Amino acid sequence: MPPKGKKGQPTDKSKAGEEEREEPLQAVVLADAFETRFSPFTLERPRCLLPLANIPLIEYTFEFLANAGVEDVYVYCGAHREQLEEYISQSKWASQVSSPFSKMELIQSTSHSIGDAMRDLDTRALLVGDFLIVYGDVVSNLPLESALNAHRARRQKDKNAIMTMVLREAGTRHRTKAQSTNPVFVVDPTKDRCLHFEQMPNKEQTHFLSLDPTLLSDHQELEIRQDLIDCGIDICTPDVLALWSDNFDFQAPRKGFLHSVLKDYELNGKTIHTHIVNDHYAARVRNLHTYDSVSQDIVARWAYPLCPDSNLLRGQSFRLQKGNIYKEDGVVLARDCIIRSKTVIGRGTSVGDGTVISNSIIGRHCHIGRDVTIDGAYIWDHASIGDGCKVEKAIIASEASISRRCRIEAGALISYGVHVSEGQTISGENRITRAKRKREHGEDLPRGEPDPSIVGKGGDGFEYYDSNEEDEDEIVDGLISRGPLYNLSNLALSAESISTLNSESEDDYEFSHQRSEAGSFVSVGSVDSHASQHAHNFDHDAAASIYDSLIEGHESANIQLELTSLRMSTNASEHQVRRAVVVSFVKRIIQLIGSGSNVRDAVAQVFGQHKDLLTRTMFDKNSASGKVDQVDFMLLLQADLASRENGDLVLLTAATKLVEMDVIEDDGMMEWWENPKSKEGDDMVKVRGKTQQLIDFLSQESEEESDEDDEEDSD
Amino acid sequence: MAQSSGAVAPGLSSFLASLKTTPVEPSIEHLISLLKRRQIRNSRPCAVATTALLLRVVGEFKGKNSAKLVDRIRQVGKRLTSAQPREVVVGNIVRRVLGLVREVVEENLDVDTTATSDVGQNAPHSDALHRPSLHSSISTFSPLKHAAAEPHEIASFPEEMSDSGELVKRPPLLSSHTSAAPMVNSLFGLFSQPDTPSTSNTPTGHQSPDSKAMLTSVNLERLADFSSSKFDMKAEVMDGIRELQDELDQSDDLMAAYALDHIHANEIVLTHTASTSVQKFLLAAARKRKFTVVHVETHPHDHHATHSALLTGKKRDGHEGEDEDAWKPLRLAGVRVVMIPDSHVFAIMSQVNKVILATHTVLANGALVAASGARMIASAAKAHRTPVVVVSGVYKLSPVYPFNTEELIECGDAGTVVPYEDGDFVDLVDVENPLYDYVPADLVDLYITNIGGHAPSYLYRIVADHYRTEDITL
């Protein structure tokens, strides 16, 4: 509880001992949203330090918290911790003198999702009273007083009101809203209670919202709203953390946590409330599209007083001129360059003759040559753009240099230090970077080979291309998901234009596009390609761990437990689990055979002991239609054995054993046999050769059965 | 639990409360961030916060060297003004305090060394000498521009930077001063002046912009001697600042005392915004006379405040303590109050006998920066030959000369004018929402301050009385 009249003071520490000090208002800033939406920029810098209108994103968040009168701030860092730490320690927020916060603590976590972070937070037990959870990318001038008061009033009445979400009303179509995914809130307006939450399109990829009929009978009024900007500002009580901990499979705060908690209201009895505001500004910079629109909002003064000319950062000196042009001191403009409206230009930037700049944000110490046309671009500090270039709505990061007569088309992303040589055209779907992967602690940045087909010959030879066509290792690396995440021009148009892109197969593009704007969080559902970041880890870790357990002869249940936890933490799919199991089992069998035991014994020993484990990897036992999981399992087994010595024999034995143990049903086995994938390639055909016996036997059996049936029928 | 949650958002009251317990340096930073975040806004709260802070700064100041004190106040002033150059009042208060320090020092000098020739030369603070130089320095320099021109240096450290920074910008001032100096010094100094500027103790350009300013080296040495003896400079300055605080407190009442001279029975008076000064002014007149007030709503910035001011006499709910006491609403005092939307001003102007405006800042040339809508009202009044009276405390009177009126005008949140919800609109339309209007001097007929009524053309005189020339560029 904040003491009256003492909020937001610079040195509350000095008064910490004072009598009226009660619980301070605490806030948790999630500096890493565990996403890769801002790649390639996030390879080198943490996302919350990317400049938005020349101010690092996290500054806005801290401003917001200071505005709200928060005292203790915990910053949860993910990647690039050391950079963030350095930045904060040098900013005004950490110094005793100027910080409005009495406590500023950085927490490093190894978590891979918001859910892990929350559970980690719960174990740390730092938070005593009500607290705020915000992301490190919130831009808002909202005073939280009324929301906090409402939350506290509710809380006093009802201990189960655990959370209040602050939502900003916006029209049906708004540039700052998420574009392709729509969060839908079902709210009881009389109590401001959120009853149901669904993110559209939902898990089943449909646009249907299914409501529990009891909601309709229990509540006199219901509002189903999808006109809200979810700015990720939550007022929580410690119960929320406990709930996260209880449900260790929750990953995303909205799709996972909120959705499930609301659904299980009967079970846990907790209520979640909304605080809907219709004035002030609140938004999250959750992807590059919102980066663009929030930048525009700031320049157009919708977020006042969060404007460039408020000079939030120390040492800034922006001044506003007519037409929302903001210029800092020491900008060098040639006599006949034209600066159009909605432009921000930082200190030390020089602009050459005949250059026209409009709707753009240009950082400090940039060099812009002659006859350059820049429209709607975001150019960060120390970039240089040569004479005669044409830059559309693109992002050019710090220290990048563009030579003369280049053309940067809308949607291009040019990362730190990239050099584009003369006369080159960078198309909209290119994302150019020099960094191969994330910078590890203290390590030099690995750089890839330059690709002259993109940046042209005579480029410094340092460039690395992250465009979607080439660049396979990037994907194996699993740091960047496929497809152009960012295509402003296409986003600005409509969904139709997406299909005109020639870069990729339709599906792939569609998917990544959706990803780029998909709601706020890592989704649990769409694992396969996007979680590739963790997938690799999982495959390796899981296989190794099971193999070790097999050698040491652990019990099936223990292996199972370990596997589950590993799966949860890395967000791996069932398929991956099966793969891990198969790989490790086969490895063990081969090892046993190698050490002298015969095939049958080896198989019996390995499979026999772990029937439970095997059955738990397949979930379609009782489904009448198709045995997808079982087929998948067999395919994996087959593929793995294809490259092994005596693979065919092992496969036969294993398959027989599996059928014997009833892990794989007869139908499943038959389906696998028929599956075209099992006949692909010489290896596969060869390895399954011997299993023909089993199949014959099985089909015979089933024929007999059907014969019997027939006989019975005829009787 | 809930009772303490009312004052979560920081503001003037929380700042003043914290000032008692926090050290100076964090307090300065605190005020800067409050100004930047616009949590303290409008002239009076800014003035109150600045005086309170400066009182603290002077109180904490160690040592007896007055030049150092002047430097210190100046530094703080620069940081504050660069944080929010459009709150001109902050600069005004800083200048007033600087003037106060100089006055205290000089008084004591006068007492101590009555007969020396130095004083004779130092004394010419006669207005005849002062005014021309004042004017020229104002016109070459808007402190606003100057302050905004180098906040970086200020922030990142003023001590060495300030001097060098000024040196760069000094030449024009120097020339303007030296050209003025021979005039006042009569023909004797005409030729010797450029060669030996420091020989004469008149406030020539060479000295005046310097931080040590009027306190010439000779004086300072003497001061250092005797400050160690008896007189307590700090205490006197602090007394002076407290007087300044009293002035801020009382200025409304003092202005209200003139109300009966200006508002007559059965007049129709038009006003706008929920200014405390104007409300009190009208209320004072209402005690004796019956008249009608036509109140313009001032949409969209101030209409909530206006409504509640008219209904309850309180500016804003929840902001208790921020705008001191509530007052009795006009309608309860027997005044007929008619509220009109801003668009009806011209239509109703023919009926109006007098326009009374509140203001944000009064500039040295007699122009004012007032809540948006003021210019329209003033122009309508001009068209109908209706007298326009501006009610403003002296603390709002600023030595700033408006070269670039756009820079004085703050642009606010576009969302208050059009709904942000309208996505298509937001996409396609650029909205500008100026919070203030610039009203040129020729549209104003009379200023009423706490020291009386003045014509706009006379304001420069009051500026000269209240601010030292050497402080005009902070």
TrEMBL record, chain A:
Give the record's keywords alphabetically: Cytoplasm, Initiation factor, Protein biosynthesis
Record domain W2: where? 528-708
Q: Does the keyword Disulfide bond apply?
A: no
SUPFAM superfamilies xrefs: ARM repeat, Nucleotide-diphospho-sugar transferases, Trimeric LpxA-like enzymes
Please list every transmembrane segment annotated in the UniProt record, as residue ranges.
none
Q: Name one GO molecular function term.
A: translation initiation factor binding
Pfam family name, one: NTP_transferase
Q: Where in the cell is it found?
A: Cytoplasm, Cytosol
Residue spans with biased composition (Basic and acidic residues)?
9-18, 440-450
Main location class: cytoplasm
Q: Report the InterPro entries cross-referenced here.
A: ARM-type_fold (IPR016024), eIF-2B_epsilon_N (IPR035543), eIF2B_epsilon (IPR051956), LbH_EIF2B3/5 (IPR056764), NTP_transferase_dom (IPR005835), Nucleotide-diphossugar_trans (IPR029044), Trimer_LpxA-like_sf (IPR011004), W2_domain (IPR003307)
Q: Where is the composition biased (Acidic residues)?
A: 701-715
Disordered as annotated region, ranges: 1-23, 434-459, 696-715
Any one GO CC term of this protein is:
cytosol
Family according to the record: Belongs to the eIF-2B gamma/epsilon subunits family.
UniProt subunit comment? Component of the translation initiation factor 2B (eIF2B) complex which is a heterodecamer of two sets of five different subunits: alpha, beta, gamma, delta and epsilon. Subunits alpha, beta and delta comprise a regulatory subcomplex and subunits epsilon and gamma comprise a catalytic subcomplex. Within the complex, the hexameric regulatory complex resides at the center, with the two heterodimeric catalytic subcomplexes bound on opposite sides.
Report the protein name in the record. Answer: Mannose-1-phosphate guanyltransferase
UniProtKB/TrEMBL annotation, chain B:
Q: Which GO terms describe its molecular function?
A: guanyl-nucleotide exchange factor activity; translation initiation factor activity
Q: Where is the composition biased (Polar residues)?
A: 193-212
Subcellular localization, per the record? Cytoplasm, Cytosol
Sorted alphabetically, which keywords does the UniProt record give? Cytoplasm, Initiation factor, Protein biosynthesis
The source's domain of life comes to: Eukaryota
Main location group: cytoplasm
Database matches in Pfam families:
IF-2B
Q: Listed GO cellular component terms? A: cytosol; eukaryotic translation initiation factor 2B complex
Q: Where is this region: Disordered?
A: 191-212
Q: Which PANTHER family match?
A: TRANSLATION INITIATION FACTOR EIF-2B SUBUNIT BETA (PTHR45859)
On subunit structure and binding partners, the annotation says: Component of the translation initiation factor 2B (eIF2B) complex which is a heterodecamer of two sets of five different subunits: alpha, beta, gamma, delta and epsilon. Subunits alpha, beta and delta comprise a regulatory subcomplex and subunits epsilon and gamma comprise a catalytic subcomplex. Within the complex, the hexameric regulatory complex resides at the center, with the two heterodimeric catalytic subcomplexes bound on opposite sides.
Family according to the record: Belongs to the eIF-2B alpha/beta/delta subunits family.
- What this protein is called in its record is Translation initiation factor eIF2B subunit beta
Species of origin: Polyplosphaeria fusca
